Amino acid sequence: MAVHLHENDLPADVFAPGPVAVDTETMGLITPRDRLCLVQISDGKGDEHLVRFGPGSSFDAPNLKVVLADPARVKLYHFARFDLAAIEHYLGVVAAPVFCTKIASKLVRTYTDRHGLKDLVRELLGKEVSKQQQSSDWGAPALSEAQLDYAASDVRYLHEMQVILAERLAREGRTGLAQACFDFLPFRARLDLAGWPDHDIFSHESA
Ligand code: MN
What pTM was estimated for this model as a whole? Predict the structure, then answer.
Protein backbone atom coordinates (compact mmCIF):
# COMPACT_ATOMS: atom_id res chain seq x y z
CA MET A 1 0.00 0.00 0.00
CA ALA A 2 1.75 3.13 -1.21
CA VAL A 3 1.06 6.49 -2.78
CA HIS A 4 3.23 7.23 -5.83
CA LEU A 5 3.60 10.80 -7.08
CA HIS A 6 4.64 11.31 -10.71
CA GLU A 7 5.31 14.48 -12.71
CA ASN A 8 3.47 14.90 -16.05
CA ASP A 9 2.78 11.23 -16.82
CA LEU A 10 2.48 7.72 -15.43
CA PRO A 11 5.26 5.19 -15.87
CA ALA A 12 4.34 2.56 -18.48
CA ASP A 13 2.46 -0.58 -17.43
CA VAL A 14 1.84 0.13 -13.76
CA PHE A 15 -1.67 -1.35 -13.59
CA ALA A 16 -3.07 -4.84 -13.48
CA PRO A 17 -5.85 -5.50 -16.03
CA GLY A 18 -9.37 -4.51 -15.04
CA PRO A 19 -11.17 -1.38 -13.87
CA VAL A 20 -9.25 1.66 -12.63
CA ALA A 21 -10.51 4.24 -10.15
CA VAL A 22 -9.99 7.82 -11.34
CA ASP A 23 -10.28 11.25 -9.72
CA THR A 24 -8.97 14.72 -10.51
CA GLU A 25 -8.01 17.83 -8.57
CA THR A 26 -8.20 21.22 -10.23
CA MET A 27 -7.84 24.91 -9.37
CA GLY A 28 -11.63 25.19 -9.07
CA LEU A 29 -15.01 24.24 -10.45
CA ILE A 30 -14.98 26.16 -13.76
CA THR A 31 -13.17 23.69 -15.98
CA PRO A 32 -11.92 25.91 -18.83
CA ARG A 33 -10.70 28.52 -16.33
CA ASP A 34 -9.40 26.31 -13.53
CA ARG A 35 -6.53 24.15 -14.69
CA LEU A 36 -6.15 20.43 -14.07
CA CYS A 37 -3.49 19.93 -11.39
CA LEU A 38 -3.65 16.23 -10.47
CA VAL A 39 -5.04 12.97 -11.81
CA GLN A 40 -5.29 10.15 -9.28
CA ILE A 41 -5.62 6.59 -10.52
CA SER A 42 -5.61 3.15 -8.93
CA ASP A 43 -6.19 -0.43 -10.06
CA GLY A 44 -7.60 -1.36 -6.66
CA LYS A 45 -4.65 -3.55 -5.65
CA GLY A 46 -3.54 -1.19 -2.86
CA ASP A 47 -1.36 1.45 -4.55
CA GLU A 48 -2.49 4.87 -5.76
CA HIS A 49 -0.69 6.76 -8.52
CA LEU A 50 -0.91 10.57 -8.60
CA VAL A 51 0.09 12.43 -11.77
CA ARG A 52 0.85 16.12 -11.20
CA PHE A 53 0.71 18.80 -13.91
CA GLY A 54 2.43 22.15 -13.33
CA PRO A 55 1.34 25.56 -14.61
CA GLY A 56 1.74 25.82 -18.39
CA SER A 57 1.84 22.03 -18.79
CA SER A 58 1.30 20.73 -22.32
CA PHE A 59 -0.51 17.71 -20.82
CA ASP A 60 1.58 15.47 -23.00
CA ALA A 61 1.01 12.29 -20.99
CA PRO A 62 0.93 9.32 -23.37
CA ASN A 63 0.97 6.57 -20.74
CA LEU A 64 -1.83 8.14 -18.73
CA LYS A 65 -3.92 8.79 -21.85
CA VAL A 66 -3.59 5.17 -23.00
CA VAL A 67 -5.07 3.96 -19.70
CA LEU A 68 -7.83 6.60 -19.60
CA ALA A 69 -8.89 6.05 -23.22
CA ASP A 70 -8.70 2.23 -23.12
CA PRO A 71 -12.18 0.99 -24.11
CA ALA A 72 -11.48 -2.34 -22.38
CA ARG A 73 -10.96 -0.69 -18.97
CA VAL A 74 -13.94 0.58 -16.98
CA LYS A 75 -13.16 3.84 -15.17
CA LEU A 76 -14.67 4.13 -11.68
CA TYR A 77 -15.44 7.65 -10.46
CA HIS A 78 -17.36 9.42 -7.76
CA PHE A 79 -19.14 12.18 -9.68
CA ALA A 80 -17.73 11.29 -13.09
CA ARG A 81 -19.31 14.29 -14.77
CA PHE A 82 -16.72 16.71 -13.40
CA ASP A 83 -13.69 14.46 -13.97
CA LEU A 84 -14.73 13.53 -17.52
CA ALA A 85 -15.00 17.21 -18.45
CA ALA A 86 -11.61 18.09 -16.93
CA ILE A 87 -9.94 15.09 -18.59
CA GLU A 88 -11.49 15.79 -21.99
CA HIS A 89 -10.68 19.52 -21.81
CA TYR A 90 -7.05 19.20 -20.67
CA LEU A 91 -5.95 15.74 -21.83
CA GLY A 92 -8.13 15.48 -24.93
CA VAL A 93 -9.40 11.97 -24.23
CA VAL A 94 -12.82 10.60 -23.29
CA ALA A 95 -12.13 8.54 -20.18
CA ALA A 96 -14.87 5.94 -20.67
CA PRO A 97 -16.47 3.40 -20.20
CA VAL A 98 -17.74 4.78 -16.92
CA PHE A 99 -19.10 3.55 -13.59
CA CYS A 100 -20.08 6.46 -11.33
CA THR A 101 -20.57 5.60 -7.64
CA LYS A 102 -22.53 8.81 -7.06
CA ILE A 103 -25.13 8.00 -9.72
CA ALA A 104 -25.30 4.38 -8.57
CA SER A 105 -25.83 5.64 -5.02
CA LYS A 106 -28.67 7.93 -6.13
CA LEU A 107 -30.34 5.03 -7.94
CA VAL A 108 -30.24 2.61 -5.00
CA ARG A 109 -29.93 4.64 -1.78
CA THR A 110 -33.28 6.34 -2.28
CA TYR A 111 -33.71 6.47 1.52
CA THR A 112 -31.19 9.31 1.87
CA ASP A 113 -30.04 12.44 0.10
CA ARG A 114 -26.46 12.01 1.35
CA HIS A 115 -24.49 10.85 -1.68
CA GLY A 116 -21.10 12.43 -0.97
CA LEU A 117 -18.03 10.18 -1.04
CA LYS A 118 -17.57 10.48 2.72
CA ASP A 119 -21.15 9.37 3.45
CA LEU A 120 -20.96 6.53 0.94
CA VAL A 121 -17.64 5.16 2.24
CA ARG A 122 -18.96 5.34 5.79
CA GLU A 123 -22.20 3.51 5.05
CA LEU A 124 -20.96 0.88 2.60
CA LEU A 125 -17.51 0.16 4.03
CA GLY A 126 -17.65 1.48 7.58
CA LYS A 127 -14.54 3.58 6.96
CA GLU A 128 -13.81 7.26 7.45
CA VAL A 129 -12.30 9.50 4.79
CA SER A 130 -11.33 13.09 5.50
CA LYS A 131 -12.55 15.84 3.16
CA GLN A 132 -10.46 18.49 4.90
CA GLN A 133 -8.06 19.07 1.99
CA GLN A 134 -10.80 19.17 -0.66
CA SER A 135 -10.57 22.95 -1.03
CA SER A 136 -6.84 23.49 -1.02
CA ASP A 137 -4.21 24.88 -3.40
CA TRP A 138 -3.69 21.97 -5.79
CA GLY A 139 -1.50 24.20 -7.97
CA ALA A 140 1.16 24.62 -5.28
CA PRO A 141 4.71 23.69 -6.37
CA ALA A 142 4.92 21.09 -3.60
CA LEU A 143 1.88 19.24 -2.33
CA SER A 144 1.66 18.54 1.42
CA GLU A 145 1.48 15.03 2.89
CA ALA A 146 -2.11 15.78 3.88
CA GLN A 147 -2.98 16.74 0.29
CA LEU A 148 -1.31 13.63 -1.15
CA ASP A 149 -3.11 11.35 1.30
CA TYR A 150 -6.43 13.08 0.66
CA ALA A 151 -5.99 12.84 -3.10
CA ALA A 152 -5.10 9.15 -2.90
CA SER A 153 -8.01 8.38 -0.57
CA ASP A 154 -10.44 9.67 -3.20
CA VAL A 155 -9.63 6.66 -5.41
CA ARG A 156 -8.87 4.16 -2.63
CA TYR A 157 -12.39 2.81 -2.01
CA LEU A 158 -14.09 2.99 -5.40
CA HIS A 159 -13.41 -0.64 -6.40
CA GLU A 160 -14.91 -2.02 -3.18
CA MET A 161 -17.91 0.28 -3.47
CA GLN A 162 -18.49 -0.56 -7.12
CA VAL A 163 -18.99 -4.23 -6.20
CA ILE A 164 -21.53 -3.40 -3.49
CA LEU A 165 -23.38 -0.84 -5.61
CA ALA A 166 -23.54 -3.19 -8.60
CA GLU A 167 -25.16 -5.82 -6.34
CA ARG A 168 -27.69 -3.29 -5.08
CA LEU A 169 -28.49 -2.07 -8.59
CA ALA A 170 -29.16 -5.69 -9.61
CA ARG A 171 -31.29 -6.26 -6.51
CA GLU A 172 -33.45 -3.22 -7.28
CA GLY A 173 -33.70 -3.99 -11.02
CA ARG A 174 -31.87 -0.80 -12.01
CA THR A 175 -28.68 -2.12 -13.62
CA GLY A 176 -29.82 -1.16 -17.13
CA LEU A 177 -30.96 2.29 -16.05
CA ALA A 178 -27.62 2.89 -14.34
CA GLN A 179 -25.69 1.72 -17.38
CA ALA A 180 -27.66 4.07 -19.64
CA CYS A 181 -26.79 6.96 -17.30
CA PHE A 182 -23.11 5.95 -17.23
CA ASP A 183 -23.04 5.74 -21.03
CA PHE A 184 -24.49 9.25 -21.30
CA LEU A 185 -21.99 10.82 -18.87
CA PRO A 186 -19.29 11.68 -21.44
CA PHE A 187 -21.96 13.60 -23.37
CA ARG A 188 -23.23 15.31 -20.21
CA ALA A 189 -19.63 16.43 -19.60
CA ARG A 190 -19.40 17.64 -23.19
CA LEU A 191 -22.59 19.70 -22.72
CA ASP A 192 -20.95 21.27 -19.64
CA LEU A 193 -17.91 22.22 -21.71
CA ALA A 194 -20.01 23.41 -24.66
CA GLY A 195 -21.96 25.97 -22.61
CA TRP A 196 -24.85 24.14 -20.95
CA PRO A 197 -23.35 23.56 -17.49
CA ASP A 198 -26.40 24.52 -15.42
CA HIS A 199 -29.17 23.82 -17.88
CA ASP A 200 -31.02 20.48 -17.88
CA ILE A 201 -31.73 19.93 -21.57
CA PHE A 202 -34.37 17.34 -20.62
CA SER A 203 -36.29 19.88 -18.57
CA HIS A 204 -39.49 21.48 -19.84
CA GLU A 205 -37.99 24.86 -18.96
CA SER A 206 -36.53 26.77 -21.92
CA ALA A 207 -33.56 28.20 -20.07
MN1 MN B 1 -10.84 14.42 -5.23
Answer: 0.96
